[in-house]
Task: structure prediction
Amino acid sequence: MIKRGPGDVLIFECDGCGKAVTGSAGYVHVDMAEVNEAADKSAVFKDDEILSPEVMTEYPKAVAWQVHHEACDPRPGSGDYWFGVDRCDTWPKLTHWTGHLMEKSWLAHTNWSSILCAIGEDA
Ligand SMILES: [Zn+2]
Result:
């Protein structure tokens, strides 16, 4: 989980042990197999299509980014896309890194936008 800290600092909490992840002790990652599956499933939907409630349930859910210490990662060495927490541990870095991530065609199939909304909710 990524949360607001004091000033422009962001805090990363390990989804395994719940303790803070800093420096090179861990990373943020997303399961690319799940992302690719979500992309394939969503490909049958048109961008401007209005979905009925029944069809909405078939639309793939956004794949969740996770935060783990290297030692707490339940799937170490997986083919996940990952980056070190120091890439975006402040608001300016988060802005820069989000710009980088937005160049990835698959980003929309992850919950990155939800993370941004949650971090900035009461800003
Ligand atoms: Zn941990």
Observations:
- The CA atoms of residues 22 and 82 lie 15 Å apart.
- The pocket of zinc ion is lined by residues 14, 16-17, 19, 69, 72 (CB under 6 Å).
- The chain has one domain: 2-120.
